[in-house]
Amino acid sequence: MDLRQMILSSILLFGFVLSSNYDDLSYNKDASQSHTAAGTEHGAQNAVDRNTTTCMRTKPIGSTSPDKTAWWKVDLGGVYNIYSVNILFKNYDGYEKRQQGRFAGFSIYISNSKDWTESSLCYKSGHQLPPLNSTTTLMKSGRYVIFYNERLDGVTYPEDYVSGTVFTELCDVIVHGCNTTGMYGSNCDMPCPVNCKVNACHIQNGNCFECDPGWQGTYCDKECDYGWFGQDCKQRCIGFCNNNVNCNHLSGRCDNGCANGWKGPLCNIEQNLSYKKKSTQSSTAIGPHDLYKADNAVDRNRATCTRTNQIGLNSPVERVWWKVDLGEVYNVNSIDIFFKNYNGYEMRQQSRFAGFSLFISKTGNMENSSVCYIDGPILPPLNLTIFCNAYGRYVIFYNERLIEVSYPVEYDVSFALTELCEVNVYGCNIAGVYGNECNIPCPNTCKEKTCNVRNGRCLSCKPGWYGSYCLRECESGWYGESCKNLCSINCKNTTCNPMTGHCPIGCVSGWTGPFCSRECVRSYGENCKLPCSPHCSQQKCHRFNGTCLTNCTDGFYGEKCDIADPTDERTWVIVGPISLTVNMVFIIGTSICIWGVFTKNISISLNKQPCVKSRPYTETEVTTETATYYQELAVPADREAYSNTTLR
Questions:
Q1: Cβ partners under 8 Å of residue 406, min gap 6
Q2: Is residue 317 part of a domain?
Q3: Cβ atoms of 240 and 259 closer than 8 Å
Q4: What pLDDT is recorded for position 570?
Q5: Which of 80, 167, 267, 349 has its Cα between 20 and 30 A from that of 443?
Q6: How far apart are CA 403 and CA 596, in angstroms?
Q7: 265 lies in the same domain as 283
């Protein structure tokens, strides 16, 4: 035996001696495998029965098999600190190298979950063939130990690997470790540090694999650094804690409360949605630079105030407004307004403040906004909190002194200045939530997922839903936002899609279209699927029953002009050919008669004339016969009985 083999044997022996001091965690524990070879003696449990003559066996994997992967798994029953895994692979006399080639390339995973794909790889066999009795030192913790091997198509494996037909045959799998959770040491008699995650640590030295949230260090005995908290101390404190103290290193909460203007469990929800947001106003009074600018009302400094030009009888201006853009659409809960006060002039300021209105808008226009508050008729306090459950991006302060309006006698109608020192808008700075901590989602069926910031009731429902929390579907025959719209009476069964109002099962006779709102044209019946008869004049028919509204075309009759006239057919089929034949016979016969008379007259004329040259003019004697078969024709008196004919 050479020196290298001696060293390797010594290491294996030392590892075996160490592992023998630990508990057998896998004996008779529940085992499973990816698939099982044919037969009843190859079950997964054979690998943990401590009988090396019984072995589990999977179906073959490799290039000659449809299966390409195989796994075997044992459930230790709890999370334990593991020292090593010993695997005894099946051997056959004379086939040791073949078995090593099948065993080669295997991996060992450890997991706390049944899904081994969520596990961590602890060991993978290399290019060299492994011994059939293999011990792997892991120093891990976990509940499930998984053996895995594969022979994938398209992968080139080392030459000694068997890649054609690979059976997985495990005769014994021994997991050594401490069978008491949270213990380590050679005798498993020392507890893991208290802040080790899942009470798991290195089985020999007690180092934590992971720390509980809020702790760091080798033994998880150090709190997170200032400004950090949570798992592995990787989460930054995001809140504004009172007196600028650090957040809780475990939870990130502010143990001593939130700084002014912030709320929520992490003190990261700004109570004042309007703070330092962009503000504008209808006009700005003349004064030193920026003294009366609109942004003074959102700077959290009550000593700086806005001021507009005056409105009232002594001014050409009748209306004034101030507006803040919150930056996004939020659920607004309440608004605090601090109007400018002067010592000894409180009532005057109240009279200038009186009659104002508040609007919440998504667009910035009062015309498309929700009225949040209208003051009057008694004078308001100069510091006022208004509860307003609305949803919007813009908060608008508005006041007016119209000439044609009579105001309460306490109102200042001549010289009303608007001076806002602070406008604080409170609500949730996260869209779609409500509650004191702004951590409860609005119902999904609320329109735009907006709800009352205090109780979660929907401000409006999505199409197809109704009720305070929009949890009830539209009843049959209704649809749209908050189910306020009636389905068309032309929908079949008067039912429609509760969201769109479309008629899902079609239209009654005479109607068509998604809402069954279009009358049939040149068609009739349900959904106008039946065309009017082409034999209706202009193809016009009754849209309900198909009856022609005009006359039928020639050759057809009936209510729908769909019955052909049989008499009309015989006239053309029989009389037509007969008439044609008679006419042809008449024409031919007449032609023959004319031709016969013509030829006969010619022959008679030729027989009476002598064969001498005639003169240009020939006199013909008229003879009278005693009997004639011809009718006498009367010759007019002014004409001779015969005329001379000149031959040319």
A1: none
A2: yes
A3: yes
A4: 41
A5: 267
A6: 120
A7: no
Q: Residue type for 610, please?
A: P
Sequence-ordered strand ranges (E) for 532-597 = 556-557, 563-564
Q: pLDDT for 402-447, tens place per residue?
A: 999 999 999 999 999 999 999 999 888 777 888 767 778 889 999 8
Residue 162 and residue 96 share a domain: yes
What pLDDT, on the 0 to 100 scale, is given for residue 565? 79
Half-sphere exposure of residue 199: CA atoms within 13 angstroms, side-chain side: 11
The DSSP 8-state label assigned to residue 78 in this structure reads E
> Cα-flanking dihedrals φ and ψ of residue 643, to 5°?
-120, 150
Residues 285 and 266 in one domain: no
User: In the predicted model, is pLDDT for residue 641 greater than 50?
Assistant: no
The size of the chain, in residues, is 648
Q: How far apart are CA 495 and CA 260, in angstroms?
A: 55
> Position 145: which residue type?
V
Backbone angles phi, psi at 15, to 5 degrees: -65, -40
Q: Which of 270, 303, 338 is the last residue of a domain?
A: 270
Q: What is the Cα 298 distance to its own chain's centre? A: 39
Is residue 465 domain-resident?
A: no
Contact 133, 143 (CB under 8 A): no
Domain enclosing residue 245, as ranges: 216-270
Question: Domain containing 142 — which CATH number?
Answer: 2.60.120.260
Task: Tell me: do 227 and 111 sit in the same domain.
Answer: no
CA 171, 177, 183: angle at the middle one, nearest 5?
160
Q: pLDDT tens across 499-547, in order?
A: 999 999 899 999 999 999 999 999 999 999 999 999 998 888 998 999 9
| 111: pLDDT strictly greater than 90 | yes
Q: How confident is the model at residue 255, as a pLDDT? A: 87
What pLDDT, on a 0 to 100 scale, did the predictor assign at position 263?
74
